[in-house]
Amino acid sequence: MSILFMVAVFVTGYVFIAMEHKVGVDKAGIALVTSGILWVIYIFSAGTIIPVASPEEFSHFLSANPELAHHSYFEQCVRFVTDHQIIEQLGETAEVLLFLIGAMTIVDLIDIHGGFNFITERITTRNKTKLLWIITFITFLMSALLDNMTSTIVMVMLLRKLIANYKERWVFASLIVISANSGGAWSPIGDVTTIMLWVKGNISALPIVKALIVPCLVSLVIPTIIASRILHGILRSPDYKDDFEKRPVGITKKESMRILLVGVVLLVSVPVFKSVTHLPPFMGVMTALGLMWIYTELLYKKKKDIEESIKNRVAKVLKHIDMPTILFFLGILMSVAALQSAGILNSLAGFLDEKVHNIYAINTMIGLMSSIVDNVPLVAAASGMYPVIDTAAVALTADPAYMAYFVQDGIFWHLLAYCAGVGGSILIIGSAAGVVAMGLEKINFMWYLRNISLMAFAGYLAGIGIYLLQVWLGVF
């Protein structure tokens, strides 16, 4: 009964988030309340849920904490939730939030110092269709090198310098979300789910690129073609000039260029930092932010003739971080974490495996579900359903033909990376990129659903079709 109640609360919160503008309550508040209610339900029902959802994990926790042996069973369950599960889930959520804060701050620093003007002044076309193709392909390539969330932040900030009308920016920002998710799915460092699969050994770098780059490109091209058919005419530019009137007082053109280069190099170095040190990405972006902080402090230290009040130091920029977006992200991720801790997502994954038992159908459904809930726990649940099978051991299994899909770089893992990454574009809150764009541009959930979701869905299915064609032709 508690499980059904949690599902009902999550769905209700989701509906209110979707109807934010009609309800008149900020989605961040709804997400936080939803998260709180879910965890309250879970902790009061932990005694009945934990033995089913996490028996081995609970047993290990009790073994590691022998002092709990004299406590009541209910108290043991409460301590398991408060001292282990919620701390672990909060840690994973904090990694995402800290990454977002670091990336947003670096991007804001570049922007506030006029760095992006060097890029926008070179995008001279005012034709909406041409601009759309340029923006989407830049995002597609950028998200493979950085990550889809950082790429979305950078490109949405650029849009504000190129497009005046907010409704037109919504269209472009929505295609940026699709491009970022598609670009991140074919790169081992482009999306958090591909990073997960890469680190765990489910996939390796070159095979995932070869297998998914064409399907991911198709998943971008199809929505862009559709969107370009409804865009006509010439864009009206925002009220700024290319002579760097937006640059802060006392900052030269050369200094703006240096800040742009330093910021971009630091952002690009984050996945390299992750690969070399094996530390989580937020450590890389926080280190990058620290270096950016030192660089700008040294820059302003030399400028004795500038009043302190107009110096755009990091401490000043941090005050303007979009905290409602951060808190919305916190609420959504912790809500999903409650469902995961209660075993709901794992049960759903197990149901698919038992009743469907078709890797193409299972992955397609996982992709559709990733547009509703975060793709990280879905991929974690899916990868937990199967171990990575050694090639030599496949012949010894009960169903060798089926289990062959689960060797390293097997079809299941490649299609999982594609579906979980690209499927998140179908709804605006289905991916980190979507949530960021929604927060930065205040994109209406229902507007995205009416105008963009079908485009994204068409691209998603087309990419799956291309992948299946590649499998059939044996091209990799």
Q: Can you walk me through this structure?
A:
The protein is mainly alpha-helical. The protein has helices at residues 2-18, 20-23, 27-44, 46-53, 55-64, 73-112, 117-120, 128-145, 148-162, 166-185, 192-199, 205-230, 253-277, 281-301, 314-318, 323-341, 344-355, 359-369, 375-385, 400-403, 411-422, 432-441, 445-451, 453-473. It has 24 helices and no strands. It is globular and about 70 Å long.
Strand residue percentage:
under 5%
Decide which structural class fits the backbone: mainly alpha
How far is the first residue's CA from the last residue's CA?
47 Å
Largest sheet: none
Which whole number gives the mean pLDDT? 84
Over the alpha carbons, how many angstroms does the gyration radius reach? 23 Å
Number of strands: 0
Which stretches are low in confidence, meaning pLDDT under 50 for 5 or more residues running? 240-245
Helix residue percentage = over 70%
SSE string:
HHHHHHHHHHHHHHHHHHHHHHHH
Number of helical stretches of at least 4 residues: 24
Please tell me what the overall shape is.
globular
